Amino acid sequence: MSNHTDHKTMTLKLVVWRQEGPDKPGRFEHYEAKGITEHHSFLEMLDVVNEDLIKAGKDPIAFDHDCREGICGMCSAVVNGVPHGGQKRTTLCQLHMRKFKDGDVIYLEPWRARAFPIIKDLVVSRGALDKLIQAAGHVGVHTGGVPDGNAILVSKIAADYAMDAAECIGCGACVAACPNGAAMLFAGAKVAQLAELPQGQVEAPERVAEMVRAMAENGFGNCSNHYECEAACPKGINVKFIARLNREFLKALVLEKVGAREKSAAGAGG
Amino acid sequence: MILDGKAPTGRIQDSWDNYRFELKLVNPANKRKYKVLVVGTGLAGASAAASLGELGYNVEAFCYQDSPRRAHSIAAQGGINAAKAYPNDGDSIYRLFYDTIKGGDFRAREADVWRLAQVSNNIIDQCVAQGVPFARDYAGYLDNRSFGGAQVSRTFYARGQTGQQLLLGAYSALSRQIKAGTVKMFPRTEMLDLVVVDGEAKGITIRDLVTGEVRCHTGDAVVLATGGYVNVFYLSTNAMGCSVTAIWKAHKKGAYLANPCYTQIHPTCIPQAGDYQSKLTLMSESLRNDGRCWVPKKKEDVNKRPGDIPEEDRDYYLERKYPSFGNLAPRDIASRAAKEQCDDERGVGPGGRGVYLDFAASIKRLGEDKIRERYGNLFEMYERITGEDGYKQPMRIYPAPHYSMGGLWVDYNLMSNVPGLFVLGEANFSVHGANRLGASALMQGLADGYFVIPYTIGGYLAQVKAPGKVKPDAAECVQSIKEVAATEEKYLSIGGKKTVTEFIRELGNVMWEDVGMARSKASLGHALQRIPAIREEFWKNVKVSGTGAEFNQQLENAGRTADFLEFAELLTRDALHREESCGGHFRVEHQYPDGEAKRDDANFCYAGAWEFKGVGKEPELHKEPLKFDNVHLAVRSYK
Prior knowledge:
The structure holds two protein chains of two kinds. Chain A is of the alpha+beta class. Chain A has ten helices and seven strands. In chain A, 52% of the residues are buried. Chain B is α+β, with helices and mostly antiparallel strands. Among the domains of chain B are: 267-401, Succinate dehydrogenase/fumarate reductase flavoprotein, catalytic domain (Flavocytochrome C3, Chain A, domain 1); 475-616, Fumarate reductase/succinate dehydrogenase flavoprotein-like, C-terminal domain (Methane Monooxygenase Hydroxylase, Chain G, domain 1), CATH 1.20.58.100. Chain B is built from 17 helices and 19 strands. The mean pLDDT of chain B is 95. The interface between A and B is large, with 84 and 90 residues.
């Protein structure tokens, strides 16, 4: 009844990583996605494949997803070698099938990184990113007893810079894209956000030192300037925040602030 | 039964301060003896868990996502209200209170709304201190914008991602407590039952979504902050995992569910493109500041390209019907108007379910650059999803289910009628009445979590004399685990022919068509026939493969769908019983000649709280009469 309804449909060949559990061997399996229109999102295309698998009595492909509007950071798969599929500033859930054509072969793999063990198929555990935030990705403020929001002024430039960093959705594509499995972009974004704002500056040296320690402890590698992270980031987080992390770390070293908190606590205890 | 909301009496301006003073306290040294279970880690749950952990309670927090940072609070775009009155434009706590009561169409408890308005200012301060990068002006001061339903600028924002930034603030506070050891976090964990011992909430039964293990966690109080239920319509702006399950399980264990028929349909969403569709995407309603809504005047024009329809053949229906508010009419009104045009077969796009949102006039007036500066990210999003360029041709929009004002009934302490069971955020029914104003959901979630529950839960715990008494080996826990496991076994053993998605889609269709934007006695009656039939078929013909002892997304969805299939009936019954139109609930029988909602204060000025009596059985209605001592009951008008 309208000019939008008669879509041509596509058939796509999928080659998907299947793995039953963390300790099970994985393998690629071949599937066909039929009747796909340009308006299907990538995940809706996977829904179609899964409905067919379920009806055929087979185990559907497990994949993470939730908001399906590009903000929760839950969806995560490597499409043809590129995390989230390679459309600029686009999460996998926002990638649409008009970017593909009939007959295309699509390889689908989970995030692959030492810090992200596979749970099933395309689903990995990203708890290591939570561990970084737990270690140092916060301001040590209690609920209540804080000054008025306008008591400490923040320049618009600083607020905008902090917001650029804070847009990170924690999906882990940067880690998956990095040949070293580094979380420097993720960690750098948080360190930079909080170091730029007066509210976070008091703890900045300890925060960056703790963040660096936690990255090593949780199985992440280091940055060697490939910039694959920024290219894969669905929010376009800039690698300048990695430089900021390095700078903050050096500053903390020079100022002998690394470990200062522990020393101070030990002194008080004596 | 007449329910008592335990709202304090006396001057409303002093009500929360006096009440806080009268609440019992738990001695700091004793707090660690109490354990609180917090389910859900969105704005309300994360802020509650963090604040309770800081106070010294033992907290266990649970979420179904892989990280607490992913809760759907993250998707809120526009902003958060507060009565700071920074712009010197006449705002005050009283005005925020008044606007919220009126916006809710006079169906919320005054004292709760007052408290919300009062603590709104603390929320902004708290978030700033956490490092939330709110928008600032060049002098460094916090910036405000205006939003629907208010005549002052009181909305604080962080670009178009305010929900994300506030959630990440709460998540960082929560993370800090996890590191400190006061909160133990259980991600990828879903609550599947509430454990009630001697009439009080003392535990939850959960499923570990990775291993499939079903086990009980016990504590001295349970806090549900599990969000809303509009996925009962299947297609909504909610995340795929949002469900009614936690509050429905609590309802089946005795907690009353209030006003489930109050659901908000958001007017500016991208229309459905096909049957395969899994969700609807919202675009900030700020678009209506510069976009004009129209449909063709003539039915035969709906398939024409919009550019080929001359100005005189376009119906700018909002400007025609509401000359003074025009395209900025409130959400419920704008949504219904779009539906009317499409019901009249003048809708555009797939299935005739869409209206144009046209920026041509604004682009001509302000230039494309100005429009790009204001809404560039939204135009990008629209193009990603539809493949159409909103600068060159009008966008197509259609309303979509967005938010639920109803939820578990709570008293002023945010405690349900089951002692020890507290409910926060969208999961409760408390402050939004029959309609929520923009930028008020974030405010409520954080108010409940940071500034209400830390006080009111103490009042309950102080009289729990033997903390930690109920252990996971209690008979009630063992029984609950047995029942959960048996239900799971049932899903897996049916071996039918239809997938879970087919059932929820079918239910969603019925709910959207019969219990959506416009409800009638006939449509609701039809739904009450269809829902039990779909439910019956589900239990005979659903196909769920795999086992319970593994990561099994089908099994998760089966459980959520089964609960929606029961809950949908309650929502429909509530809509049928409420013989009036108010806020998000529109009964076609109850309207003024010009099509506006007709409230019936003489008969329906109460919160309707339902008591579960068995699946498919008539629930029992309990009423909490609403009194308006500070705001006079009046008809909402936006003409």
